[in-house]
């Protein structure tokens, strides 16, 4: 009570002690809370900045729900009032932030929200810093309310990064102007997609300036200077990665991070590896990340800090593709022998996923998994050896090699139990494929397996008994030997009921059943249906529950596996059209399932009606849809659309005339989307040129969650238009309708073709008819960078032919467009003129419409 009385004093020291006592010792449920609230209200109304500051500090320190109910409506008024002192504005912003974090439902959104945004232009940088923290938190939950903050944040950031350290003396920290405010502004900008072109240009200049300053010699040798400088740099790189729209910035960010990989400071090495993991997901910076592969491998071998080694493993996993898979898997296996126990299981999962995902030669895959079991058998989960069994059973070409390899591996004196499981299963199914060799005769195979029997656990012994009865069917000559084993007391009277039951049933089956019945009951296992790899599911579970941020993770897994790998195939889809038998090349399904909804109306040109409910009118294309569509011409993965509510991510792969696209819908809010209905729409002409299959998604999308939809694609004939993806849902009682162009373009069905110079120009002359050539001369829209140009041509789908054109500055490419009905050869030549900042693009194909369409698509990329 004495402390409450002190609040009424007009002396600063007494009032301070009273507030301090209340902040530390008074419970929010105290009977005195009403008296305290009255005293605080009086101080807030006094307009004395010192007393107002003490009152605001007390509210923030207590931060109870009762405080929020009492003052959440008053504090915003103090914050935006024109006559409020700067120090009080600071305190009010931070106090409101505290209340919003503890009781967000009690902080009302109102007229003050539009006025608080303008605090970013305040003269007092302390007010700007506090306001930025508040706006960032509010914008994460209510992005639409604070979208005007983007241009103001860019403007303020521009003034900071272009200023000299002497211009902001009070807020310069070791020669770095306002580092904390810069970091907060950069974080605020990460709440929103890339801004409009005018603002984007200014933001790009800011980011380039930050990257340039990172290259400058340090102005101080003190660690505080480098810490502040690097804090701003890493936050700028996070924003570049978040926008994923500026190739030059992405490559520069990667090069900057590469310099930190060998820095003497452990924290910098850790942060560089962590940021490069995300950069590896971008189409534009992936190749730049790969140039550092040797440095990362060296870090894996020599780094003393286990957390840094773990990030190195993550980066190797992220940067892996078909060209580097064998090297990376070999290095990870080598490191696994000495790896810390805490990360061995994760490394095992990643090695298993990469080996499967990028296996071109499945003998290498089998060798890798068996080596994995040998090195880290205790950390090889059931999902790993289950998966290798599925792969071997589903692929006839590797079954004999797998049987021979496991037979040789089992001859080691000490074998891990997981290897015995794999050996028992594979030899039981395919031991006949190596039985012709005297060194692996049926009896030798049986004796080898049985020599491990007494060392194994009950589940493994049960599996071996099943292998034995399979041997009875495969090798009648060892039937008597196996029956003797099954008849022994150790089996028929085993204490474990499962082993006893198997021994009795298998013995009876081998005695009573005829040869035909035995062959039917014990026939070879049928192929497993393709589904999501349990290894990949286990890794995702280990990394945490699925959230919207998983869209970034999906970018990291750069390609859909075409080798029967971890990517899910649709179990049931709404059949849009009947695919050709060749559709199974990508696992698009063994037969086209029946449509589930009513037939589409011909008038609307509707291709896929995902739900049977009649859809509302389709919205026009969202702003920026055309720009995003153009970005996907030369890449397959990334964020297609993003606003304050919804994020749409894509991951796709194409081979010949077939493709598969995964669409990820992310709910960025904390409120459910209801009646969520994505629909694919095509014109009548496009329906005859493009076959699509899709499956419905859950009509309810929880807040902060994402759902996935699979689209299987078959190109029947060349086409010029693109499908439209329309998404309709209800958010907070409001109907939302969004349409975007789906980036399925003709060049996606390109297969690169390598050609020598003589062959190229011979074919070039053959395609010399005026109808076969299309040429376009245009002004460069982006910086004329050689490496980026090469990356775009390769991303476009054609092979980039080196040393073919007499002019080394020119770029030439060759490839074949695959459709169901025909194959169309294509040659291209791109001639840059650096002085005039112009290009001349020439395309020659055997079909004029194809030349015209490819020329249009590629011209937009430069």
From TrEMBL:
Q: Where in the cell is it found?
A: Membrane, Coated pit
* Positions of the UniProt region annotated as Disordered: 536-606
Which terms are listed as keywords in the entry?
Answer: Coated pit, Endocytosis, Membrane, Protein transport, Transport
Low complexity bias locations: 570-591
Classify the protein's membrane topology as the record does: Peripheral membrane protein
Question: Which range is the signal sequence, renumbered to this chain?
Answer: none
Clathrin adaptor alpha/beta/gamma-adaptin appendage Ig-like subdomain domain spans which residues? 630-743
State whether keyword Transport applies.
yes
Q: Does the keyword Protein transport apply?
A: yes
Q: Could you tell me where the Pro residues compositional bias lies?
A: 592-601
The role this protein plays is: Component of the adaptor protein complex 2 (AP-2). Adaptor protein complexes function in protein transport via transport vesicles in different membrane traffic pathways. Adaptor protein complexes are vesicle coat components and appear to be involved in cargo selection and vesicle formation. AP-2 is involved in clathrin-dependent endocytosis in which cargo proteins are incorporated into vesicles surrounded by clathrin (clathrin-coated vesicles, CCVs) which are destined for fusion with the early endosome.
Provide the family line: Belongs to the adaptor complexes large subunit family.
Q: Which PANTHER family does the annotation name?
A: ADAPTIN, ALPHA/GAMMA/EPSILON
Record note on quaternary structure? Adaptor protein complex 2 (AP-2) is a heterotetramer composed of two large adaptins (alpha-type subunit AP2A1 or AP2A2 and beta-type subunit AP2B1), a medium adaptin (mu-type subunit AP2M1) and a small adaptin (sigma-type subunit AP2S1).
What name has this protein been given in UniProt?
AP-2 complex subunit alpha
Species source reads Galeopterus variegatus
């Amino acid at each position: 009570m004495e402390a409450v009385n002190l609040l009424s004093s007009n002396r600063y020291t007494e009032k301070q002690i009273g507030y301090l006592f209340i902040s530390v010792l008074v419970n929010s449920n105290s009977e005195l809370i009403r008296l305290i609230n009255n005293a605080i209200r009086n101080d807030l109304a006094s307009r004395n900045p010192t007393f107002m500051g003490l009152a605001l500090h007390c509210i923030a320190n207590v931060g109870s729900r009762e405080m929020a109910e009492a003052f959440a409506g008053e504090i915003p008024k103090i914050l935006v009032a024109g006559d409020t002192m700067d120090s009080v504005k600071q305190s009010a912003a931070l106090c409101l932030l505290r209340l919003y974090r503890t009781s967000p439902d009690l902080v009302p959104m109102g007229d003050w929200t539009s006025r608080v945004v303008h605090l970013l232009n305040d003269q007092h940088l302390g007010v700007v810093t506090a306001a930025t923290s508040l706006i960032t938190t509010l914008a994460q939950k209510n992005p639409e309310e604070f979208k005007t903050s983007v241009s103001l944040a860019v403007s303020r950031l521009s003034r900071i990064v272009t200023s000299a350290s002497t211009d902001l003396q009070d807020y310069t920290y070791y020669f770095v102007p306002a580092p904390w405010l810069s970091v907060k502004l950069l974080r605020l900008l990460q709440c929103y997609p890339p801004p409009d072109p005018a603002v984007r240009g200014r933001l790009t200049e800011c980011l380039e300036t930050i990257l340039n300053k990172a290259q400058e010699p340090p102005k101080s040798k003190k660690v505080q200077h480098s810490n502040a400088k690097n804090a701003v740099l890493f936050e700028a790189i996070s924003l570049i990665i978040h926008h994923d729209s500026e190739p030059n910035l992405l490559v520069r960010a990667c090069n900057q991070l590469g310099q930190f990989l060998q820095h003497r400071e452990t924290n910098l090495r850790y942060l560089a590896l962590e940021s490069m993991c995300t950069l590896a997901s971008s189409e534009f910076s992936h190749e730049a990340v790969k140039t550092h592969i040797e440095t990362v491998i060296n870090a894996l071998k020599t780094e003393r800090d286990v957390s840094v080694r773990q990030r190195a493993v993550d980066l190797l996993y992220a940067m892996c593709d078909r060209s580097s898979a064998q090297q990376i898997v070999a290095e990870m296996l080598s490191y696994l022998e000495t790896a810390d126990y805490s990360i061995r299981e994760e490394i095992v999962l990643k090695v298993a996923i990469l080996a499967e995902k990028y296996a071109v030669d499945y003998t290498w895959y089998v060798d890798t998994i068996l080596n994995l079991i040998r090195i880290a058998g205790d950390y090889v989960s059931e999902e790993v050896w289950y998966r290798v069994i599925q792969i071997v059973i589903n692929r006839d070409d590797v079954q004999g090699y797998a049987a021979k390899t496991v037979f040789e591996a089992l001859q080691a004196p000490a074998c891990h139990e997981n290897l015995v499981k794999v050996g028992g299963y594979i030899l039981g199914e395919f031991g006949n494929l190596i039985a012709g060799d005297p060194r692996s005769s049926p009896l030798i195979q049986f004796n080898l397996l049985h020599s491990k029997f007494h060392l194994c656990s009950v589940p493994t012994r049960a599996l071996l008994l099943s292998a034995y009865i399979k041997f009875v069917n495969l090798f009648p000559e060892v039937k008597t030997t196996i029956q003797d084993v099954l008849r022994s007391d150790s089996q028929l009277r085993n204490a474990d009921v499962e082993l006893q039951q198997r021994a009795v049933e298998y013995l009876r089956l081998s005695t009573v059943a005829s040869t035909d019945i035995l062959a039917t009951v014990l026939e070879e296992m049928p192929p497993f249906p393709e589904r999501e790899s349990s290894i990949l599911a286990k890794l995702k579970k280990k990394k945490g529950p699925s959230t919207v941020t998983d869209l970034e993770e999906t970018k990291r897994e750069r390609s859909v596996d075409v080798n029967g790998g971890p990517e899910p195939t649709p179990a049931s889809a709404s059949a849009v059209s009947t695919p050709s038998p060749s559709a199974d090349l990508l696992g698009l399904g063994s037969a086209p399932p029946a449509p589930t909804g009513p037939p589409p109306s011909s008038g609307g040109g509707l291709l896929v009606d995902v739900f049977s409910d009649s859809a509302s009118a389709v919205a026009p294309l969202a702003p920026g849809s055309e720009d995003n569509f153009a970005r996907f011409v030369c890449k397959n993965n990334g964020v297609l659309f993003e606003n304050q509510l919804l994020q749409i991510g894509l991951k796709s792969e194409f081979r010949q005339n077939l493709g598969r696209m995964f669409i990820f819908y992310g709910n960025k809010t904390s409120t459910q989307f209801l009646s969520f209905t994505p629909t694919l729409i095509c014109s009548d002409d496009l329906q005859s040129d493009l076959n699509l299959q899709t499956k419905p998604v859950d009509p309810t999308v929880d807040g902060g969650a994402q759902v996935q939809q699979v689209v299987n694609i078959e190109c029947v004939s060349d086409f010029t238009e693109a499908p439209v993806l329309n998404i309709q849902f209800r958010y907070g009682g409001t109907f939302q309708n969004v349409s975007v162009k789906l980036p399925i373009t003709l060049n996606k069905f390109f297969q690169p073709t390598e050609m020598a110079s003589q062959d190229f120009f011979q074919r070039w002359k053959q395609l010399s008819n005026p109808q076969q050539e299309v040429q376009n001369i245009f002004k460069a829209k982006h910086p004329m960078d050689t490496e980026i140009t090469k990356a775009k041509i390769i991303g476009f789908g054609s092979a980039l032919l080196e040393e073919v054109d007499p002019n080394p500055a020119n770029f030439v490419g060759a490839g074949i467009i695959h459709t169901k009905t025909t194959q169309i050869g294509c040659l291209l030549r791109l001639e840059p003129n650096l002085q005039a900042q112009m290009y001349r693009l020439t395309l020659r194909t055997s079909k004029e419409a194809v030349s015209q369409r490819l020329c249009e698509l590629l011209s937009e990329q430069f």
